[in-house]
User: What shape does this take?
Amino acid sequence: ERYKQWHTLSSLSWVRCAAEPKSGPRPCARYLHRAAAGEDGVVYMYGGRGVERELGDLWIMDSNAAVGTCASRWRLIEPQSELKPIERLSATLTAVDMGPTGAGKGSQLFMFGGRCGEVFLNDVWLFDTKAATWEQLMQHS
Assistant: This one.
């Protein structure tokens, strides 16, 4: 209950949320996950540590739908590429708007490093939010 709050950038204030509906898809409980704000008010969340292991799932939420009602609209993104990052926690995740000069690709997510088990990672990944594909830009050494 204490964590059910939403920060609105337009008013720079916290809004207390009512309990989430129990139906519909939503991420499992986790910690050390990463989130990034994308274009048009969406929020991406990747990985983290679940109850039993590291996670490698990518979720998207429309934050515009959540403001005021706090009713989250989560959706699991199924990557369309065979290649994808291994599960991890504590990575960095940054959304970059490629805009019209970036061949119309829109937002992309850059992910660096993190940890899987006892292994520290230093790889770099790019996720194309329009095509839902991962591309590895740099492998770990």
